[in-house]
Amino acid sequence: MDSHSKLIEMLATRSARRGTFTLASGRESDLYIDARLTTMSPDGLATIGQLGLARIRARGWTPDAVGGLTLGADPVSYAIAHASALAKAPVRAFTVRKETKTHGTGKLIEGPFYAGDRVVVIEDVITTGSSALKAVDAVRVAGGTVLGVLAVVDREEGGREALEAAGLPVEVLAGVAEIVANMR
User: Fold this and answer.
1) How would you write the chain as a 3-class SS string?
2) What is the pTM of this model?
3) Thinking of the domain 3-181, which architecture would CATH place it in?
4) Residue 173: alpha-carbon gap to chain centroid
């Protein structure tokens, strides 16, 4: 089974649930995708790291770092950074806090992010695109250049289009239709 098929299978069996849910965007949905059930598992990390890095390279993006809004982007960013180290082409990972830290150094971005970095913003699940846009804004304010957005899942509810309308190229590892088609 190739990496993409393996990821779809993991998301369909571990992360996708039917019911009545309120999403982070505030929208109601009968489908919830808790990508963390996949992105935080050992085989999920291994699959997503390699697949994410391959997709970044296929797009021609050459980032210094990857990261996004905590918590959903964190395991994906770390998996890609780990895969890049194994490939001997290191890409650093960082985390964007939801709010600026009020103690210590008062950072909004944690980890090895530096002004001037070329960045791919990471998102676990795109619904409206607002989380990715918040991370993009933080990176730009801190002096980074955003090459694009990489998402594990696109819920196909307009978020990708909103990001693209903001001038951000988007790469998606799995569409919701692929996941739903593989649910049992």
Assistant:
1) CCHHHHHHHHHHHHHEEEEEEECCCCCEEEEEECCHHHHCCHHHHHHHHHHHHHHHHHCCCCCCEEEEECCCHHHHHHHHHHHHHHCCCCCEEEEECCCCCCCCCCCCEECCCCCCCEEEEEEEEECCCHHHHHHHHHHHHCCCEEEEEEEEEECCCCHHHHHHHCCCCEEEEEEHHHHHHCCC
2) 0.95
3) 3-Layer(aba) Sandwich (3.40)
4) 9
Query: Which tokens go with 173?
Result: 């590892």
Under 8 Å between Cβ of 127 and 23 = yes
Q: ∠ CA(138), CA(142), CA(143), 5° rounding? A: 120
Residue 66 and residue 122 in contact, taking contact as beta carbons nearer than 8 Å: yes
Could you state, in order of their start, the residue ranges of all structural domains in the chain?
3-181
Q: Are strands 118-126 and 28-33 parallel, antiparallel or unpaired?
A: unpaired
Per-residue pLDDT of the chain (184 residues; tens, 9 = 90+): 899 999 999 999 999 999 999 988 888 999 999 999 999 999 999 999 999 999 999 999 999 999 999 999 999 999 999 999 999 999 999 999 998 766 666 689 999 999 999 999 999 999 999 999 999 999 999 999 999 999 999 999 999 999 999 999 999 999 999 999 999 8
